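Structure first, sequence second, as always.
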């Protein structure tokens, strides 16, 4: 009986840790099939639609009125909503957040997942080229923050012979994802 309870508890903990990072209510009201490439062609058609996109932050700009604009390099999302690193991109988009976001936390290269309402488009330059950015009004943002510890070396005894299979255990990195819902 205790073993079953323990296994059920572990299963519950495992399943709860694998949930999507955007709330169920927002996902229910979003348009999951609506891609950045579609919206970029004609933003006016999709005004008011809610989408969930993600990618890597290019720039964080805090404005005088207390809002923040995030420029994001789009990446496709995984099943939990995490932007995939080794994938293609459909372009860039802007996120308008109605509060101050610290540029230290929302730094260039960090990955985010955004649920937002399509507002309009803004034209900016990338180098010498003009670029049309779809603008999302943020409903929910999830910052993917990864921290790597320094290497951890287990106790080493120079007088004892460790078999080859043991060498991989003695030196490794710890991986810690941290959640920053905003």
């Amino acid at each position: 009986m205790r073993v079953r309870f323990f296994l059920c508890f572990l299963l519950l903990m495992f399943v709860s840790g694998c949930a999507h990072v955007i709330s169920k209510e927002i996902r229910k009201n979003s348009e999951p099939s609506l891609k950045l490439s579609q919206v970029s062609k004609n933003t006016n058609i999709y005004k008011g639609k809610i989408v969930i996109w993600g990618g890597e932050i290019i720039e964080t700009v805090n404005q005088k009125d207390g809002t923040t604009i995030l420029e994001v390099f789009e990446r496709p999302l995984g099943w939990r909503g995490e932007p995939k690193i080794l994938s293609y991109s459909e372009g860039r988009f802007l996120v308008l957040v109605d509060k101050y976001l610290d540029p230290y936390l929302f730094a260039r290269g960090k990955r985010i997942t955004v649920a937002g309402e399509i507002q309009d488009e803004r034209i900016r330059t990338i180098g010498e080229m003009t670029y049309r950015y779809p603008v999302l009004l943020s409903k929910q943002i999830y910052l993917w923050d990864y921290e790597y510890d320094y290497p951890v070396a287990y106790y080493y005894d120079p007088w004892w012979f460790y078999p080859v299979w043991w060498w991989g255990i003695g030196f490794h990195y710890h991986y810690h994802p941290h959640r920053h819902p905003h």
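Margin note: The longest strand covers residues 129-148.
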